[in-house]
Protein 1
Amino acid sequence: DIVLTQSPALAVSLGQRATISCKTNQNVDYYGNSYMHWYQQKPGQQPKLLIYLASNLASGIPARFSGRGSGTDFTLTIDPVEADDTATYYCQQSRNLPTFGGGTKLELK
Amino acid sequence: QVQLKESGPGLVQPSQTLSLTCTVSGFSLTSYHVSWVRQPPGKGLEWMGVIWTGGSTAYNSLLKSRLSISRDISKSQVFLKMNSLQTEDTATYYCARDETTEGDYFDYWGQGVMVTVSS
């Protein structure tokens, strides 16, 4: 299985930039695409797709969210952070059978 | 619009079998794969398995011996059965649509059903 590693938590101030990282133990690139996706989950809610294929914004997601990376290193950036962005963020790979990172809880300073 | 809704018992006794149903609308099970994902209280997401458009299945290697996923296309329902439940299987269980046109990710999720394993 491909293992995805995320830092457990991140604290940022309102209006600042949040950068959440996800590292994999195997390359998730295949034929020019990076099979890495990002989700946001708020307490008591189901996960919500933010970014697919590393850098593509999902429908209805504000442009404050962006993703980048390739191979084994990926980041999700939120700029600027708003109060409503407090949530846990998960990365997920689909190069092989799906696996998720452990999640990064974004909090406000 | 696309919707998925999980249903099933909220409480299951240890060693018993869990049976859940995911009822979908707004898309066909012959056009999209459907996966099951679970989340223990306060913990992260774990992919459990998938039923592909052709009816084949794939499972998380850690759950494979206990898990079965099937479907009824005419009823737009996907079923999960998992046996030999233990307290560690207490979790919220989600079904999710698997978008594979570009990349194989979960674009729609059900609201989830909380399952407690306890005597």
Protein 2
Amino acid sequence: AQRVTQPEKLLSVFKGAPVELKCNYSYSGSPELFWYVQYSRQRLQLLLRHISRESIKGFTADLNKGETSFHLKKPFAQEEDSAMYYCALSGRETSGSRLTFGEGTQLTVNP
Amino acid sequence: DTGVSQDPRHKITKRGQNVTFRCDPISEHNRLYWYRQTLGQGPEFLTYFQNEAQLEKSRLLSDRFSAERPKGSFSTLEIQRTEQGDSAMYLCASSFIRNTEAFFGQGTRLTVV
């Protein structure tokens, strides 16, 4: 079974502060991990995926298979980062590459 | 807008009525997914199509739910005899077969009263 856990429903930081959104997963095979973001009144969109190993909008995430984690980090948060963030998993052994999402973390960056 | 589009954006219906939603994926995408999202939760997988074939259905998809993708292009999701528990945001997404990046529509918000 696939499971994604985001322990924090709400996270509030000040502009310029570091931010870390936690994500833990459970999957017995080879996972592919993603972070999706939903800004206010916009559709869900891909922020980054672990296989790309990119930094998008200053965010990075490293897959730690030992700790089964994929935490999202940004060293200096900006007000425009305020959004709902979802961690998601796709199992390579799962047909169709469907996504299993966590419950989401609402990030608020205060001025 | 060349993204995934869903229609209608909002639907209010009385309990017991049937409703149908439409999703138009990105035209080159072979795979089409339906997800359901309730308040405070992440999206939950319902079903997916590869071209016109429906290849997987979640146990969340009761027999009151049916989805089609008749020509491998747009898809419809029908809910028969709606219940209040069906109230949710219904999301459609599409992707290429060999690319796991899914592109989402803006969703259809269903309210059953």
